[in-house]
Amino acid sequence: MSTCTSSKPRKVKVSLLHSPKYTSILHQAMFHIHKDRDMLLSSLLYYCGFIKETPSFFTVVEPHVASRTQLEHFHTTDYLDLIEFAKCVTSNKL
Questions:
Q1: Is the pTM of this model over 0.85?
Q2: What span, in angstroms and rounded, lies between the C-alpha atoms of 22 and 49?
């Protein structure tokens, strides 16, 4: 016979990295892959009230430029090297 203990439900916290500038930059940089997905998601979140009047469990955080060291906490060095290489190629800095 199994026993079931009731516990308090955990409080969920959700954060969204969002700003109009961030959405615009992401849309321009990733259009060839995402098409209009970034703009559609931003509009959906806005009109559903998640950006205008955020629920208590939901936080909107404006992103900022991260250093290479900060990015290495979330991405491999190979990935970051690839992104830097692509950036150099597209700006003809090689």
A1: no
A2: 19
